[in-house]
Automatic annotation (TrEMBL):
Species lineage: Eukaryota, Metazoa, Chordata, Craniata, Vertebrata
Source superkingdom: Eukaryota
Keywords of this entry: Apoptosis, Cytoplasm, Golgi apparatus, Lyase, Neurogenesis, Notch signaling pathway, Transferase, Unfolded protein response
Record flagged with keyword Metal-binding: no
Protein name: Gamma-glutamylcyclotransferase
Source organism of this protein record: Irena cyanogastra (Philippine fairy-bluebird)
Primary location recorded for the protein, binned into one broad class: cytoplasm
Designated gene of the protein: Chac1
Length: 191
């Protein structure tokens, strides 16, 4: 079984796997439209994490993990709790295209996707509003800022040829807001 990750799974799968490949799936765009009140946020201040939006002309880069034997049941049990129960994601099978030059045919992979029917689904917002929400959110897996920056770093270092305007626009908005917060905190400490 192959499992495709496009959010925190790219750096923290949390399950045993046999091999991993960087690559992409077609027909989907990555969006920070899913609310998170557990891993990267709380009930009071929900975080924003990514989900996939059907988009016939787009592709989303990430990592596919191969799980075999006993790894299959253990990884599915873990992911069903992490993504489906806590995060409200549905599962789909998609064609994964490995990045390798000599890659074979696409691989069928399982992916978790939050839909608008999900109770934690937040939907679209401006990059500035999403960045502002990310800045104030933190959950049991860490701060929401870390989630955004790790995902942006993954794209830069492992998929430098790929564009993800949504992701990088939110990162830019976050960076433009942070100096203001730092300056305000410094000013408050001095008074």
């Amino acid at each position: 079984l192959w499992i495709f990750g496009y959010g925190s799974l790219v750096w923290r799968p949390g399950f045993e796997f046999t091999s991993r490949k960087v690559g992409f799936i077609r027909g989907y765009s990555r969006r920070f439209w899913q609310g998170d009140t557990f891993h990267r946020g709380s009930e009071k201040t929900p975080g924003r994490v990514v989900t996939l939006l059907e988009d016939c002309g787009a592709c989303t880069w990430g990592v596919a993990y191969e799980v075999r034997g006993e790894q299959i049941a253990a990884s599915l049990e873990y992911l069903n709790m992490r993504e489906a129960v806590l995060g409200g994601y549905d599962t789909k099978l998609v064609k994964f295209h490995p990045q390798e030059k000599d890659a074979e045919e696409p691989i069928l992979a399982l992916v978790y996707i939050a839909t608008p029917q999900n109770p934690s689904y937040l939907g679209p917002a401006s990059e500035e509003d999403i960045a502002a929400q990310i800045i104030v959110s933190s959950g049991c897996a860490g701060h929401n800022i870390e989630y955004l920056l790790r995902l942006a770093d993954f794209m830069r270092y492992f998929c430098p040829q790929a564009e993800d305007k949504h992701l990088f626009s939110i990162e830019e908005a976050l960076i433009s807001i942070l100096p203001c917060l730092y300056y305000t905190e410094e000013s408050l400490e001095e008074t």
